[in-house]
Amino acid sequence: MTKSAQTSAMRRINELLDDNSFVEVGAYMTARSTDFNMQAQETPADGVVTGYGTVEGALVYVYSQDAAVMGGSVGEMHAKKIENLYGMAMKMGAPVVGLIDCAGLRLQEGLDALNGFGRLYGCQTLASGVIPQIQAVFGNCGGGMAVASAMADFTFMEDKAKLFVNAPNAIAENDTDTSSAKFQSEEAGNVCMTGTEEDILAQIHTLISVLPANNEDDMSYDECADDLNRMCEGLENCVGDTALALAMISDDSFYMELKKEYAPSMVTAFIRLNGTTVGCVANRTESYEEGEKTAEYETGLTARGCEKAADFVNFCDAFNIPVLTMVNVNGYNSCKCTEKKIAKAAARLAHAFANADVPKVTVIAGQAFGTAGLVMNSKSIGSDIVYAWKNASIGMMEAVPAVKIMYAEEISGSDNAAALISEKAAQYSELQASAMAAARRGYVDDIIDAADTRKRVIAAMEMLFTKREDRPAKKHGTV
Fold first, then answer.
1. Is 291 in the same domain as 179?
2. Residue 175: which domain range?
């Protein structure tokens, strides 16, 4: 039984974990500083409830900050409790979930509090890639705590919460609430999902249930009641909205998209195939809801999309989660804003895919043109299996612009330029820009019916289950 009062901090823990599973650790720890009359200040549990429990029977370590105690500010003992929790989680190989409601650094404890933040960052760094780290922001997440949230693998945010390093009113000539959930999810890309408190806790519960407990012991498998050979009729109609395609091929249509509001032309999501969690990266050119088109997006890669996908692939690789890529891209987005960062961002994405040694399957659903098609987990950079739908187009560039460049003189001197372009474009498509042309060269392993995608991808993942791959000895890459 917890020794802390039933505050919002404790309530959130109880709503997240299985009933009566929470065991509190460090309940009697309080601030020991006496500076600035701190001895007269009550700090029960020093403003953070720490302990462990279960989610669907799986062990999880949780800390939940209590804004009723000095605004949930981080002091020396507050940080020490979280540090101790990380130590336990690392020994046991279980996820850490932080429920954040924090005013930032506790000024009365100055240097000790600052050191506490540093030690917290150190714990997060050691845990990165070893155990999943999840944070959810309720209320405030200011200053140094915002850095801690960015170091987590997944960050969720309540609709009315605030996340900031610098408060919006401290930023010169700022007319935007840069601390809002809307800004942090749509513009900054720091938040995976927003919603009500109940929504966020439910999503964390679901996420924990599909993630491995750590980088060695995979507890994310589930029994599959769905037909492994189920045909997905009409899947070819989802070439624009690949999110719908991924949901259709997933076991019982399970689909969990992350950072949906940020760079929406790039999909990053988890699905289930034969009971196994699979990380998915896909290009999206349009969105549909209840059969109605709700948005259209860039047909080329964006810098934001590449960065978002690279981070996701790196996480999947660290935790041995297979990666499925669905490709429909015709190049790079052409604008000044993208041009500032696209080269480095695309390089990071190519490096993430090429560096990952987990099972990797690629399905070319629409277009895969130029080096943008290459960085989307092509055979050239290490995809284990590449499938293409029958009408897919694969090549250097689209046929018509290619022909206009190659036959510029003939076209300019022709009396019937349109017919000449059409003729040459058909030839170019057949020889250099079709799925068949790529398959003949070994860049595509098979050309499949869209309806067969689920069973073919599952079969490929089953074949790749025992994959082993030797890599050059090195400390780490530098891209």
1. no
2. 8-210
CA distance 239 to 245: 7
Same domain, 246 and 176: no
- 462: nearest Cα among 247, 253, 224: 224
Burial pattern 406-422, b for ≥16 Cβ within 10 A else e, equals: ebeeebeeeeeeeebbe
* Distance between CA atoms of residues 14 and 24, nearest Å: 11
Count of C-beta atoms within a 10 Å radius of residue 246: 27
Collapsing DSSP to helix, strand or coil, 463 comes out as helix
Cα separation of 382 and 116, whole Å? Answer: 42
Q: Where are the alpha helices (DSSP H) in 104-143?
A: 110-127
Average pLDDT over all residues of the chain: 91
Pairing of strands 154-158, 133-142: parallel
Q: Cβ(355)–Cβ(311) under 8 Å?
A: no
Give percent above pLDDT 90 in the chain. 73
Chain position carrying tokens 């200011």? 142
- CA 267/CA 417 separation, integer angstroms: 40
Question: Are 449 and 321 found together in one domain?
Answer: yes
Q: Give per-residue pLDDT as tens, 297-354.
A: 989 999 999 999 999 999 999 999 999 999 999 999 988 888 999 999 999 999 999 9
**110 three-state secondary structure:** helix
Closest CA to 329 of 258, 379, 265: 265
Nearest Cα residue to 38 out of 103, 104, 115, 107: 107
Burial class of residue 466, CB neighbours in 10 A (0-12, 13-18, 19+): exposed
Would 228 be classed as within a structural domain? no
Q: Are residues 197 and 281 in the same domain?
A: no
Alpha carbon separation from 441 to 344, 384, 433, 445 (Å, rounded): 29, 16, 12, 9
The three-class DSSP label of residue 237 is helix
b/e 379-397 (16+ beta carbons within 10 angstroms → b): bebebbbbbbbeebbbbeb
**Pair 4, 11: CB distance under 8 Å:** no
**Whether the Cβ atoms of residue 101 and residue 145 lie closer than 8 Å to each other:** no
Same domain, 249 and 143: no
Strand runs (DSSP E) across 1-47, as ranges? 23-24
User: Tell me, what DSSP letter sits at residue 44?
Assistant: G
CA 208 to centroid of chain Cα atoms: 14
| 257-269 per-position pLDDT tens digit | 999 999 999 999 9
CB 278 within 8 A of CB 265: no
Place of tokens 């990952």: 356
CB atoms closer than 10 angstroms to residue 468: 5
- What's at 426, amino acid-wise? A
